[in-house]
Specification:
single chain, 148 residues, mainly alpha, 0% strand, elongated, membrane
C-alpha cells in the first residue's frame, strides 16, 4: 500500500489501515471520556460557565464516559468489527449535527458555550470523518485479499 493511497497516513503515523482506524478510535475514546468526566465532575461550575443546565451536563457526562469506554474497547481490539466502527461513525455524526441543532433550537448558552458547542461539534464530526476514511481503507484492503 503506497503512502499516497491514504492521505491520512501522516496524521495517523502509519500506513496500516487497521492501525490507523484503531488510533483514531483511541483518540476519540480519550477525548470523549475525558470530556464526559469533566462534564460529570464539575457540572455545576461548568454549566454556569457555558450557560447550560448542570443536570444536562451531568447526564451527558455520564453517557459520554460510558460511550468513551465502549469506543476504547473497540480501539483495543486487534481488528475492530466494521459494523461496530460504522456505528461509532454514525453516532459521532449524529452528535455533531444535534449539537448544532441544540445550539440553534433549544439552548441559550453563554458566550463561552456558544463558542464551545460548535467547536465540540466540529471535533466530533472530525472524528467521524477520520474514522470513516480509515474504515474505508480497511475495507478496501480486505477486498484486495485473496479468498481462501
Amino acid at each position: 500500500m503506497a503512502t499516497s493511497t491514504y492521505p491520512l497516513t501522516a496524521l495517523a503515523r502509519t500506513t496500516d489501515p487497521t492501525a490507523m482506524l484503531r488510533r483514531f478510535l483511541g483518540l476519540d475514546a480519550v477525548v470523549t471520556a475525558g470530556n464526559g468526566a469533566a462534564y460529570a465532575a464539575v457540572s455545576g461550575p461548568l454549566g454556569d460557565f457555558l450557560g447550560v443546565d448542570s443536570g444536562l451536563l451531568l447526564g451527558l457526562g455520564a453517557g459520554l464516559v460510558l460511550y468513551g469506554i465502549g469506543v476504547a474497547f473497540l480501539a483495543a481490539r486487534k481488528s475492530p468489527p466494521p459494523f461496530a466502527v460504522q456505528a461509532v461513525v454514525e453516532v459521532n455524526a449524529v452528535w455533531a449535527v444535534l449539537s448544532v441543532v441544540a445550539l440553534v433550537a433549544w439552548l441559550s448558552p453563554s458566550t463561552a458555550g456558544a463558542v464551545w458547542i460548535p467547536l465540540q461539534a466540529a471535533t466530533v464530526g472530525g472524528f467521524a470523518a477520520l474514522q470513516y476514511a480509515a474504515l474505508r481503507a480497511v475495507r478496501a484492503g480486505r477486498q484486495g485479499l485473496p479468498r481462501p
